[in-house]
Amino acid sequence: MFSASKDPLGANLDRIQIVKGWLDKRRQLHEKVYNVAWAAVRVPDEKTGFLRPIGSTVSEEDATYDNSIGDYHLSGIWTDPDFDEGQRSFHYCRVIEIPRPRWTLKDAVFFDIKLPDEVPKVIQDRAYTSPI
Fold this sequence. Notes:
- It is a single chain.
- The chain is mainly β.
- It has a domain at about 1-60 and about 65-100.
- The protein has one helix at about 105-110; strands at about 1-5, 15-25, 30-40, 75, 90-95, 100, 120-125, 125-130.
- Strand 2 (about 15-25) and strand 3 (about 30-40) form a beta hairpin.
- It starts with a strand and ends with a strand.
């Protein structure tokens, strides 16, 4: 069971992922990401599990965003479809917010300067649980 709510002053939630890590027989570490809950009507790719990003409401002209996409709360129940009781593994939950303006964009708007293309303008904050 998992559940996450947005910060009352922050961005809405895009999706929740469960990250599984495990050791194979050669003691090599592997990782797999499962999208387990998401806002808006989207469908993960059947083969890869990839889930497209929700989109963005960031305005680069004034370094603002709005919470017209995403959701304030996501929750559900998940069972590991690849569970193997003989395999050493761990799981943790990752919650991803919708995009927001990064401080670089806010400064560029405030000081009325153009950012080079390689400077990130948007950020998606994340929250992580402790692994189990």
